[in-house]
């Protein structure tokens, strides 16, 4: 696949739109959780939440590529025909442009959060946004740089599975606690499954580049089994919450749980083919995993919104 040639196509490639559901789905879930404690849907909270997530997407996607440019270059040298082009090593965009684009996304997210403090009136939103961005910066940048030191998967699960949905719930419903927030426990586990699987295709290049991930430390098979266990445990956590807590309507968790488990069985069936350097099989494995997570969480969010109020 040759690098795109037009400026628009280059930026579109760099922004990786196929990965956007990774943040848009928790945004939808968080908004639905916030709606559970609000008297009516706050369209301003929804608009600000979506705008914040789009800025956050630009920040995370581009700055992560900038932070990983050395290891990405190693992978392209090791597997020139086995992996897709990388934004900086393949010259799609320069490192300077990627860095500036990522910082612009960060600035947009903070500006939207500052707006949200007055419209719709969430006085802690800018502080929450700084906290959310700090999680990402701890993931990618020194001095912590946990994505290179063995803590990246846990930090990603925390950021995607808890911090972003909670921020969105705050935007929609304010600070009041609602029992449905306990469903985030299951989503954190699903987010951890996604984080674990993300390192599968980079096992050998990450190891060569000195990057410590669960895959480089424990190996391909153990990582896959960990991801599959997180999927099963995440769905089970939803089921337990739905059946044990009366305020969380049981009918809002049964279909999402069934969806996750159904696609989880497909994931398990494809697992043994997704071994080290089997890039096509690993791609299928991750698509099935994301199908389980994104479809299940979207169904849960829609059912929670349907039962709110």
Summarize the structure.
It contains 13 helices and no strands. The protein is an all-alpha fold and 309 residues long.
Task: Please give a handful of descriptors for the protein shown.
about 300 residues, mainly alpha, 13 helices
Plain-language structure description:
With 309 residues, this protein is an all-alpha fold. The chain has one domain. Helix content is 71%, strand content 0%. Helix 2 (21-36) packs parallel to helix 13 (279-307) and helix 3 runs antiparallel to helix 7. The longest helix has 29 residues, at 279-307. The model has no long low-confidence stretch (mean pLDDT 95).
Poorly predicted runs are: none
The 3D shape can be described as globular
The total beta strand count reads 0
Question: Could you give the order of the helices and strands?
Answer: HHHHHHHHHHHHH
Class by SSE composition: mainly alpha
What's the total helix number? 13
Q: Rg, please?
A: 19 Å
Distance between the termini: 49 Å
Main beta sheet strand tally, sense and closure:
none
Helix content: over 70%
Number of domains: 1
Mean pLDDT: 95
In terms of DSSP E residues, the strand content is under 5%
Task: Write the topology of this structure.
Layout: H1 7-15, H2 21-36, H3 43-67, H4 69-78, H5 95-118, H6 125-140, H7 152-173, H8 184-198, H9 203-208, H10 214-218, H11 220-244, H12 254-271, H13 279-307
